[in-house]
Fold:
Amino acid sequence: MRAVGLRELKNRLSVYVRLVRAGESIQVTDRGQVVAELKPPEQANARPDLTPELLDMARRGLIRLSKRPNHPSLYRNLPRVRLHGITTAELLDQERGER
Structure:
């Protein structure tokens, strides 16, 4: 694990963010004492209650996951809607009617 001082981190933040994105963890120090850690988002095995899609969205920064454990039913897979051969655009046209 790499260590970096606050001033160095501030001056070269984008470099260290790229390292974290690549999977490296970095300790942030202030006057030689570790005060924080930068690390990649949680890996899939750390949150077995979440779907792979949610974990991927969190990794890409599209959503933030709760730190508290959630009930698995909150993230259940939604049923697939069958359109019976009709497109979404056609359904919207039917719903809107003639405007």
